[in-house]
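Question thread 4412

I'm putting together a teaching handout and wanted feedback from people who do this every day. The idea is simple: show students a protein as raw sequence, then show them the C-alpha cells that encode its fold, then repeat with a second protein so they can compare. Below is the first pair exactly as I plan to print it.
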Amino acid sequence: MEIKVRFKPDDVARLDQEAAAIGTTRAALIRSRALATGGDVAGLSTAAYHRLVSDAAAFMHGDLPHRHIELIVAYVINRLNQTAARPDTAA
C-alpha cells in the first residue's frame, strides 16, 4: 500500500541529512519513524530513552512539565547526533 505525505523543502533537506548521517534512505527513515521499528532513539532503546527522560524529570524536581522535558531530551539527542555526524555543526 502506498501512503503519500507532503513535506516542506526544508523538512525534506533535514530528513535527507538525518538519513545520510545514519547511512539509510529518506524513505527508510520515514518508514522507521512512522512504524517505530527498531525501537531506537539515537542509539538508545525505547526503555533507555524513557529512563533518561524520567531521570531528567527527577533532576528538575517537578519544575518543568514532563512534556517539556521530553522535548528538551529529544532536542539534545538530535543535536548530539547532528554534531557527531557533522562536526562543523557544533555550536
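The second pair follows. I'd like the answer to focus on this one:
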Amino acid sequence: MSSQITVTAWIWDFTAQAAHAMAGYILISKIKQYHGLHAALIAAALGTVAAGLKEFWYDATYETVETRGSDTLDFSMYMVGIVAGLLF
C-alpha cells in the first residue's frame, strides 16, 4: 500500500507566497542586523529591483504555465518581507 501526499492549489500558492515574504524578510533583517539600517535601505532598493526583474521578466520568460503564479502577488509578497525586515 502506497501513500501519497496531495498538495492542493491553495497549499501550493500559500507555501509559495510565504517563501517570497520570508526571502525578503531574511535578506533585509540579516543585513540590518549585521551592517545597520543604511545598508539595509540600500539592500531594500536593490532587492526591490531584483524582485521586479525576477517576477516580471525572468518568470514571464522562463517559467512554465503549470508552475507560474501571479507575478504581481509574488512581487508584493517580496515587498511585504522587505518592509517587515526594515520595520522589525
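Top answer:
Good format. For the second protein you could add a caption like this: The chain has a mean pLDDT of 93. The two ends are 48 Å apart (CA to CA).
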